[in-house]
Amino acid sequence: MLIDIVDPVYLRDQIAKLDLSITGLRDALRGTGNKTLTDLDTRLGTIEGRLDVALSTRLAEATFTNRFPSGAALSDALGNPTTTIIGSALLAFDGTNWRRVRVDTNNRLAIQDPPTLPTLNGKFPSATALGDTLGNPTTTILGSALLGWDGSYWRRLAADTSSRLKINAEVVANPPNLDITLSAHRDAIRGTGNKTLTDLESRLASILGKLDVNLSTRLADSKIPNALGQASLDVVGSTMYALGVVDYTLPSRMPYMIDNINVTTTESSTSIATPGAKIVKITNKSDTDVLLGINGSVPTTNPLVLKARTAKIFCFKGVTAIYYKTASGTATISIEYFN
Length: 339
Prior knowledge:
- By secondary structure, the chain is of the alpha+beta class.
- The protein has a domain at about 230-339: Jelly Rolls, CATH 2.60.120.10.
- Helices cover about 25% and strands about 20% of the residues.
- The chain is built from 7 helices and 13 strands.
- A 5-stranded antiparallel β-sheet has the order 1-11-8-13-6.
- β2 (about 90-95) and β3 form a beta hairpin.
- The longest helix has 23 residues, at about 195-220.
- The model is unreliable at about 225-240 (pLDDT under 50).
């Protein structure tokens, strides 16, 4: 007989992580108006009903007739337009009138009194290389100077020898709404009942207590049959089914416990003294599955698998050795047994 159970400690840890505010999430999505998707569908239906005609019908109405001139192609040789056309005309204002900006036949902008190179001579300083160690300029140079406004003057921003910008920490602004925002989030998480993690822990403890009472009551139920005897056959690895029962003549004493057994991909084993164990519980405390073999090496095909964070309890006629290993990674198991 094989019984798979989830490790109660792991189950309790997972229950503690559950977000029980599902109704709170629902109410937040529906908003203060308690709206549903049906409300949204109704509103969209109202909007659709107000679209009386298609846009193509509107664009074809007579009100648009003759509102725009005929199209005219723009090209480099286009003459001065004598009628309205759709195009972009580049105009400039001479102080009295708007005039067309002219270009020559080579598509170059025509300007009045173009400057010559000699007139530009000496207008710009000689180029100066900018570097991390450049001193404070005493003459005009070509470069970009990073300045900051202090309210009265423009001042150079200072940096240290490691190219890090110097700042005055005393004037760093304190976010004005930080505390308000955090408290608002706190209240939203705690809800209208102002619940805390302590309240949740108390509720979970109550649930665990009720589970324990209910399970113990179920185990004591008269519907569980008395022992029918012990089958003298090995059903591990076969396809048949069997009813495993506990011999009521077993001694009433604490089981033997071997805890924190390290399991790797290299097979190891734990021996049990003669006459061997009749009831064995193996608990997997890790997130990695463990492969088992009873009174022999772990089978290469269809091995007994102890799932992560679960335990197996089984009755066997004389367990003298338990073999174990992992397919990959490591795990930690414990073995409890009666002999």
